[in-house]
Amino acid sequence: MSCAEILSTQAFIDGEITGPxxxxxxxxxxxxxxxxxxxADAAALSDAIRTHAPRYAAPASLRRRVxxxxxxxxxxxAHPPRSRIPGRPGFWRGAFSGAGxxxxxxxxxxxxxxxPSASTLADQVTLAxxxxxxxxxxxxxxxxxxxxxxxWFAGRLPLSPPVADFAPQGYKLIGGxxxxxxxxxxxxxVYQHGKxxxxxxxxxxxxSTLPSAALSHGYHSIFWKAHNLDFAAVSDTAxxxxxxxxxxxxxxxx
Amino acid sequence: xxxxxxxxxxxxxPHMDAAYNLARWLSHSxxxxxxxxxxxxxxxFRAFDQFRGENIRPxxxxxxxxxxxxRAVDSRRRGHAPLPDEDQHALAFDGPDPxxxxxxxxxxxxxxAMIAGLPEDFRTVLILREMEDMSYxxxxxxxxxPIGTVMSRLARARALLKDQWLAEDTDVVR
Lengths: 254, 174
Hints:
The complex is a heterodimer.
Chain A: H1 6-13, H2 19-30, H3 33-52, H4 60-78, H5 88-95, H6 99-111, H7 118-134, E1 141-142, H8 146-154, E2 172-181, E3 184-193, E4 196-204, E5 213-216, E6 219-226, E7 229-235, H9 239-251
Helix pairs in contact in A: 1-3, 6-7
Chain B: H1 2-12, H2 16-27, H3 30-46, H4 56-77, H5 89-93, H6 98-103, H7 107-117, H8 120-130, H9 136-143, H10 147-168, H11 170-173
């Protein structure tokens, strides 16, 4: 396979080249022993694959499973536990329309591969935060009562995040959801501070180092460890206000 | 919402076999392939609003591949298993060993082991070309690689398989 035209020849037999260009390739193959061998081998290989290697078909049981999971997903979407904060949808729809969505989707695909290293963790929690907001899924359990939110997590995650309301201090508990950070399940306790939402991510400690504070795409995040759990607070609120919130959470006896 | 679901099913469900076939050849396991496809279809459904193209198959297969990768990384992090490719190369490239020879009862399992032993990048391109009959452009989209890369990977995959399959066994194929 030493012919320099081998990729053209391959493109020709794969039906990628048509018209006058195809005639030129054909003429080349007629005079090139390497390319003739390549064509014959590729054809034999194609036959062998067709004969000896199956194209597996999705089993009926899988199709049923997928239908069921889409039913569930649809029911959840049709009856959302609670719509998002008034005044936000327009902003988010605007902010994430068109190219923004594509960029975010691409970013999501890329981030999904990354290890949970300290340098990317801020990006990951920020992405989880903005993705949830964008989809209007930031809250799965709606409650300002920590006696409701905390047990809600119990049936869903193998960890128990601290849940407290700091409404008097200006950080109102508004609900929670289950999300993922770096591929691992995380509890997210959602707070409202003025017009901003703060996501408090909590996941089982994995021994990785955490950044202390970061700014990613305009979102501040603060990380810390406590009780064998990793914490991250993320918001588009100002950094000092996020820091005050973190102080409140860390001061709360668990 | 109903329209959304209908539209998704009309576009995506025809490619469930393609999704499953790729998941099967990536994971080498029917159970894992089931989970990967289920995961991928849910993710695709959730992200369906963001799908802007005309051809959903490459987009869907990208998600399948991502789901497979995430699982592979997860299981490696848990210390259960090596990344799928790390334990497969031996099958194809380390030459014959007596036990492997004994297992090669049929041509089917022999060729399948060879394909399974290809490095993942090569294997995926080959599967999509030979089994799904996808164009270079579609394969480039699905694997997020330039078309030139797709072409060279395909040529490499064919060369690797040819060396093993045709060289060892001229009387069966011809």
